[in-house]
What does this fold into?
Amino acid sequence: MQLPRRTYYYQPKATPSNEALIARIADICLEFPRYGYRRVTEELHREGWIVNHKKVARIMREHNWSCVPRKKRWILTTNSNHGFPLYPNLTKGLSIRTLNQLWVADITYIQILRCFVYLAVILDAFSRKAIGYALSKRLNTKLTLGALQMAIDRRNPEPGCIHHSDRGVQYASREYVKELESYGFQVSMSRKGNPYDNAYAESFIKTLKSEEVSLWEYQSVQEVQERIPYFIEDVYNQKRLHSSLGYRPPCEFETMVMVTQNPCQRALIASP
It folds into this structure.
């Protein structure tokens, strides 16, 4: 018959039923209510589903599962009117090539019934992983120092790591800068009123607000203290797919980087 041998052994891939696919998309949208069709498609591909992003978008649209952007409400958390020294922006034109090369820090607010709770967070800009955070009802240097200490305890970076933040008094204070210098950080700050200089941190806060805070009506500080660490550790760091990381979660991306940069690490990870 003049057919190649592989034709005889070829086994067509089974196509899942529409019902099973729709059910799985529903589960993903329930777990990640702010996922768009691109992230849902990538999650399906990671699980071995063979499906086109256009079909996923159509299913989500037909079932009204497409996420809708929320209106933003701004609360001022940056007070740059102070007498502390300011530092130049060291991130401009910087090529980020490894972990612990650049840390970015920022503060946001979380509203509860009668007041606000403030969150300070530090990310590794290379992996987008949240490596340090702290919550408080007070917007002060103690808040930012709590996030910094957690990040240092977890990462123990070599001297020379760049710490980038806005010009807020919580980051420019003598106490905070002294702590940075004691660990050998290079201090970097954004230009006044320019959020694009701290885009990595701003992106995290946008994700936190849209995928966690806006979906819950927190009744107490205790609820915030329970939900926010869960979202950061279990959802954002471990599960949420980041388009900038090739649709991988930060923890998975860091593991991949460590194995690539240090071949000896492959045997350690593979061993029981």
Observations:
- Residues 28 and 187 are 40 Å apart (CA to CA).
